[in-house]
Amino acid sequence: MHDNNLHKHGYDLDLLSESYPDLKSHFITKEDGYISIDFTNPASVLALNSALLKEHYGVNHWELPVDYLSPPIPSRVDYILHLADLVGEKNITGLDIGTGANMIYPILGTAIFNWKMVGSEVDPESYDFATSLQEKITMPKSRKISNIKLRFQEDRGSILKNIIKPQELYDFTMCNPPFYGSEDEAIKANQRKNKNLGNDVSDRNFAGKSHELWCNGGEALFVKRLIKESVAFKAQVGWFTSLISRKENLPKLEKQLTKLKATYKIVPMNSGNKKSRFIAWKFEK
């Protein structure tokens, strides 16, 4: 994890439960006597996230329906911190592509660095929930939830078009693209995960809406589309970035960026045993 990540040494569950008492009902005792939570239970992960946001970032009243993806806060913080290394910390404006119902990246960008953030969303239900969530959330006095602007993407065939307005300038864009290429692929991956964990396997027992988990062509095709579309906005954006979960997707993306004569870099990020990275690219103005 990033050196500045508050969560690099794990969680203090006792401290978190003092800040967010509902968390205590989700505690479990492992065989070694260690107190933890059930990370396969969406309600438990949601309670942990609410506690982390309240205790460490002063974000109150964050919530999410249990059938949506509840994002792991430490890895989301890591992306934000690495972006700060890339573009700086002060007077920054960013765009989160596909901000989701949870709106987590704009919230963290504002809470940690007081960035101005735009969050785009293509799913009407997620957009509506994020809009209502923004009205409920409170932050420390030095931070403004009004720094976040939400925009609905009416054209499912576009990513940046209709979202980045004429004359607008962004220091960066960020994106956590859908991982899978189909529902069947997502179900099979989840079954393998549950089998490895020794859990009962069902057809579909994981949290997350379809648009959060899969899209045609999966992660690779989505980012290829993003790269292609980014050329038209090269004068308005400093760095375009996207998480890349599958390392094997990188060569084709690098080839595409080289062909477009873009400057790019791969930024590694590790969270526990999980290895990840994001790709960042920019064009000569």
From TrEMBL:
This is Ribosomal RNA large subunit methyltransferase F. Specifically methylates the adenine in position 1618 of 23S rRNA. It comes from the Bacteria. InterPro entries: METTL16/RlmF (IPR010286), rRNA_lsu_MeTfrase_F (IPR016909), SAM-dependent_MTases_sf (IPR029063). It is an enzyme of class 2 (transferase). HAMAP family: 23SrRNA_methyltr_F. It is found in: Cytoplasm. Its EC number is 2.1.1.181. One of its GO terms (biological process) is rRNA base methylation. Keywords: Cytoplasm, Methyltransferase, rRNA processing, S-adenosyl-L-methionine, Transferase. It comes from Nonlabens ulvanivorans (Persicivirga ulvanivorans).
